[in-house]
Amino acid sequence: MTGDHQTGNGDSAETETETGQTSGLAGIINSAQPDYTKSTERVEMTDAEHLAQKKRNAAIAWSLVGFMALIFTITVLRLSANIAGGAS
Amino acid sequence: MNSSTQSSVNRVEGEAISLASPRDFFDLMKPRVITLVIFTACAGLAAAPGSADPLLAAISILALSLGAGAAGALNMAYDADIDRTMKRTRMRPVARGTVSVNDAYTFGIICAVLSVLIMALASNYLAAGLLAFSIFFYGVIYTMILKRSTPQNIVIGGAAGAFPPMIGWVAVTGEISLDAFILFMIIFLWTPPHSWALALYKNGDYQAAGVPMMPVVKGAKSTRLQILLYSIVLVLFAGAPVLTGLGGAIYALTALGGGALFMVLAIRVFNSRAGEAGSAEEAALYAVRSGDKAARDLFAVSIGYLTFLFAALLAEHGFGAYISIPGVGS
Questions:
Q1: Residue bearing the bigger pLDDT, A23 or A18
Q2: Interface contact A56-B212, CB threshold 8 A
Q3: Are residues A5 and A20 in the same domain?
Q4: I need a labelling partner for B57 at 20 to 30 A (CA). Which of A46, A72, A88, B170 fits?
Q5: Count of structural domains within chain A
Q6: B317 Cα to chain A: minimum distance (Å)
Q7: Torsion over CA of B157, B159, B161 and B167, rounded to 10 degrees?
Q8: Which range is least confidently modeled, B6-10, B139-143, B153-157, B287-291?
Q9: Within this chain, do residues A35 and A48 fall inside the same structural domain, yes or no?
Q10: Do A36 and A50 sit in the same domain of this protein?
Q11: A29: domain range?
């Protein structure tokens, strides 16, 4: 796995793993990069994969709606407090 | 589902398509830890002088919970290799392979950014800054540096868990006062005896994972002594809110009764053989097992102790149950 690292090492957060990968912060940054050495393939998703993806998409959608509602609520409360403060 | 409803996607050769559910991502956030974070933050928020809009205060608590969840996700992403080797943690989403390391990092970072943003909008920049620092402290300083390098990992790293009541306080007042610092220190001093009690009876797990917890590095006997010393300091320090007037009669009684029970259990652990390897002799094996039970009792009671201390503050300041003690406090 790209994010793996050694345990119990104790010297520093940046260590070289047996596979030559870097752990710690540099490892995280490296692991976020696409692996261009591997080719991509077009595959059919199984029912389970499709269902899991649908559930994740729904969760993201609801989270976005919630986030928008939250920002709207904060804005209204802040504005009304400022207006009330300005009026007094 | 028939084949016509199936989708085709591009994927890197050899990599599996994720089967992770929203529940797995929720589990990444360490929901049980979050409940304690919410509780202590509510106590800090209620105890702070002044008033905040109830809805904005609730949103601040939500932001804090999201931030704590983000720190938990970053922790699980980085510690997947350790978690896989320990019985207690091997069923975590990243450890069992349901959520990939990259997805866990991405999720953690997005939650962290959103939590700080929401906190800044709902309360003030100081509270948002403290939240950002606490996520960084837990996710980077503790998880990536301290945990694998020093037996003092949870002593220093305990600061991350001590921030919630202070952040709750600052969300209302906009400043750090002595009382906010006292709330911080109570959790900071509580963390070592609490965590080391767990480490004593899970010593083998930590040893196998190569985590330099105190019992692994300094031995069980030294750990039991340090648990006792930290417990004495904690129980004494828990009286500080009474002296400043933050805690009233209910808090004082809770700190007194809870502190006495905490000390009895800490002494029991000190006199036990908790954390030591059992020999083939039945008597020695029994002594170790009964010692481990003493450590388990202290671990369980320590959670109750902290909960009751903050519940007392919440009752006194949030529900009007504050009774001042004559001649004590400001």
A1: A23
A2: no
A3: yes
A4: A88
A5: 2
A6: 24
A7: -150
A8: B6-10
A9: no
A10: no
A11: 1-41
Answer yes or no: do A58 and A27 share one domain: no
| Contact at CB, B81 and A40, closer than 8 angstroms | no
DSSP state of A13: S
pLDDT for res A31: 64
A2 neighbourhood in chain B, CB within 8 Å: 101-102
The set of residues, in sequence order, having a beta carbon less than 8 Å from that of B67 and lying 6+ positions away, is B111, B112, B115, B116, B119, B131, B132, B134, B135
Say whether B82 and A78 touch across the interface (CB within 8 A): no
Q: How far apart are CA A78 and CA A72, in angstroms?
A: 10
Residue with tokens 């390391």: B101
Backbone dihedral region of A8: left (phi > 0), alpha (psi from -120 to 50 degrees) or beta?
A: left
Q: How near does any CA of chain B get to the CA of A82, in Å?
A: 13
Residues 106-165 of B with CB under 8 A from A: 106, 114, 118, 121-122, 140, 144-145, 148-150
pLDDT of residue B12: 64
Whose CA is closest to B21, among B99, B101, B74, B77? B99
| Per-residue pLDDT tens digits for B274-321 | 888 765 566 666 777 778 899 999 999 999 999 999 999 999 999 999
ipTM of the complex: 0.78
Q: What was the pLDDT predicted at B60? A: 97
B21-175 topology per CATH: Tetracycline Repressor; domain 2 (1.10.357)
Contacts of A13 in chain B (CB under 8 A): 144-145
On whether any CB of chain B is under 8 Å from the CB of A38, the answer is yes
Residues 184-213, chain B, touching A (beta carbon < 8 A): 209-212
Domain co-membership, A35 together with A58: no
A37 and A51 in one domain?
no
Q: Which residues of A touch B121 (CB under 8 A)?
A: 71, 74, 78
What are the extents of the domains in chain B? 21-175, 177-330
Is the confidence at residue B214, as pLDDT, over 90?
yes
Identity of the residue in A13, A41, A70 whose CB atom sits nearest the CB atom of B145: A13
* Amino acid (one-letter) located at A49: E
